Amino acid sequence: MITTITLNAAIDQVYEVDSLAVGGTNRVSTIIQEAGGKGINVAKVLKRSGADVTVGGFAGGINGERIRQLLLKKSIPSELIQVEGESRVCLTVLDSKKSKVTELLESGPQITKQEWQSMLNWIEDQSQSVKWFALSGSLPKGLPTTAYAELIDIINANGAKAILDSSGDALQNGIKAKPYAIKPNEFEIATILGKATVNETDLLDVGKRFVDDGVEHVCFSLGEKGAIFVNQEGYFKADAPKVEVINTVGSGDAFVGGLLYGLANGEEPLIAYKRALACGSVNAMYSKIGFIDSQQVEELMAQITIIKL
Ligand SMILES: Nc1ncnc2c1ncn2[C@@H]1O[C@H](COP(=O)(O)OP(=O)(O)OP(=O)(O)O)[C@@H](O)[C@H]1O
Ligand SMILES: O=P(O)(O)OC[C@@]1(O)O[C@H](CO)[C@@H](O)[C@@H]1O
What we know:
Layout: E1 2-6, E2 10-17, E3 28-36, H1 38-49, E4 53-60, H2 61-73, E5 81-83, E6 88-95, E7 100-105, H3 113-129, E8 132-136, H4 147-157, E9 161-165, H5 168-176, E10 181-182, H6 186-193, H7 200-212, E11 217-221, E12 227-231, E13 234-238, H8 251-264, H9 269-284, H10 294-303, E14 306-308
Parallel strand pairs: 1-4, 1-8, 2-6, 4-5, 8-9, 9-10, 10-11
Antiparallel strand pairs: 2-3, 6-7, 11-12, 12-13, 13-14
The protein binds adenosine-5'-triphosphate and 1-O-phosphono-beta-D-fructofuranose.
């Protein structure tokens, strides 16, 4: 059993337009509406991989109700804590002609101290029986930047394992609590290091530092360039498989879903890493966010070579 946490759940709306005219009138040719936010996307990928997964986090208002309905439609059990505020809508606009993706992300509800306490109590309860957690996405207003660190402390104390995928101070503070794995992208790691960009040496150095500090798997996702992995055995690198890209939004979440599926099912780390890459790349082949086809994942896994650096 795996639980994914989305503190800032969303209705993910994808609009496909022929050619996006900023400042003009745009007719939408295709609409996709799904439950989203990073942890929910991880759950969708896990569900499609055949895992037993539950969704946790916060949801409120009419949008919160819709998120619950959309999860129900996918037969994904949710235990989202009801909050006073309104959950957000995140809009992705796909420009078919230019193959460009534009994202408009609302900031989400304000979480009260009481609501946060309910989450801490719920995690304490869950991590008595669930052994694997994904903690993903931005923090809604009202939560301290130590929010993920607090959750990881509870999960670790109960002998469970957490994979953290966030950004900024929430990620930096979360890492200090020693999650089992992390998945920053280049931009997220550059922000932590206070640099505009990062090169391979930066990634290897900071990855080694995180592993020495107690993170078991440091997974840097590098978009179409693939990924770099650092663990106690050393440094590993793999190119992403070449695919026909439609929408890369959610590829990071699919990567986390693949990684979590592999590790939770006892796969060797290098196999789980291949699964993570393949899930990320399959997600990029579809308009839907957080979508994979298991057979395509297996096919892409067979094409991936991981080299030890
Ligand atoms: N253009 C692409 N072609 C092939 N594979 C891709 C492409 N973009 C992403 N991927 C796959 O998805 C994985 C994760 O992508 P990426 O590093 O962009 O995640 P991310 O920045 O966290 O994404 P998001 O925040 O939108 O979910 C990559 O490691 C790769 O395997
Ligand atoms: O604001 P966050 O939580 O960082 O990101 C939210 C989001 O862009 O991430 C997912 C794609 O990774 C989408 O489902 C969602 O809209």
